Amino acid sequence: MLKQADDVCTSEKALLLKRQAEVNGWMSIFTTGLATTSTIVTGELAKSILSGGAAIISGSRDHVNTHVYRNQIIQTITKAIDTERVRLLEIITPHLKQTSATYPVDEMIREVNAYHQACSFGTGLQIVMESVEKREAFDKMARVQSIDDQIRTLADERGRSIAPADADARMQILRDERIRLATGVTID
Fold first, then answer.
1. Who's near 80: CB < 8 A, 6+ residues apart?
2. Cβ atoms within 10 Å, residue 160
3. Is 63 exposed, middle or buried (CB count within 10 Å of its CB: 0-12, 13-18, 19+)?
4. pTM assigned to the model
5. Whole-angstrom Cα distance, residue 180 to residue 137?
């Protein structure tokens, strides 16, 4: 079953590249067709419309390549798929030498199915999006920690300072910012 899942996954990842080639191929054909037709037809307006259409399709193909394919989207999603499948395979592998009494067939099928399902564009995109969300949460926690450190530093300074009111005012600003970051609520 793992071999079957690997074979299907290889095909799925190849389809990502195939779709890129198909988009490029069809857009190139349309560009060539419109450009060629513009040289055959009579009338300046018809020639201009066909030439403009060829330019639009050619430019669109370039934009799709630049913004979708060359900006590492397929590579990032494929990497996310591969990473998730390695993680799932590490769960399955220790069980492979066990008997059906210690590794129930139902559990094995569920785990192999999860391994198989991890190889899809949608799953890869979801993993990438979750990674971005986790990074945002980590960054938010780091900002809150930085504010806590600043508050502690100000509290220490306040104890040694002749002007504690200034330290109190700055600490209150930091506390308000911490609450806003942690809860999304602004204190007025």
1. 124, 125, 127, 128, 131
2. 8
3. exposed
4. 0.48
5. 14
d(CA 102, CA 37): 70
- Read off the tokens for 33: 């067709």
The pLDDT tens digits of the residues spanning 103-154 come to 888 999 999 988 888 888 888 888 888 887 777 777 778 788 888 888 888 8
Write down the residue that tokens 């067939």 correspond to. Answer: 105
Task: Provide the H-helix boundaries in the chain.
Answer: 2-40, 44-64, 73-92, 105-117, 121-160, 164-183
Distances from the Cα of 91 to the Cα of 47, 96, 111, 186, angstroms: 63, 10, 8, 44
Q: Percentage of residues in the chain with pLDDT exceeding 70?
A: 89
User: What residues contact 27, with CB distance under 8 A and at least 6 apart?
Assistant: 57, 58, 60, 61, 64
Contact 175, 151 (CB under 8 A): yes
Residue 162 token pair: 């002749």
Report how far residue 170's alpha carbon sits from residue 154's, in angstroms, rounded to the nearest whole number: 8
Tokens of 29: 């054909």
Closest CA to 65 of 31, 24, 106: 24
Burial of 90 (C-beta count, 10 Å sphere; 0-12/13-18/19+): exposed
How many angstroms separate the first and last alpha carbons of the chain? 60
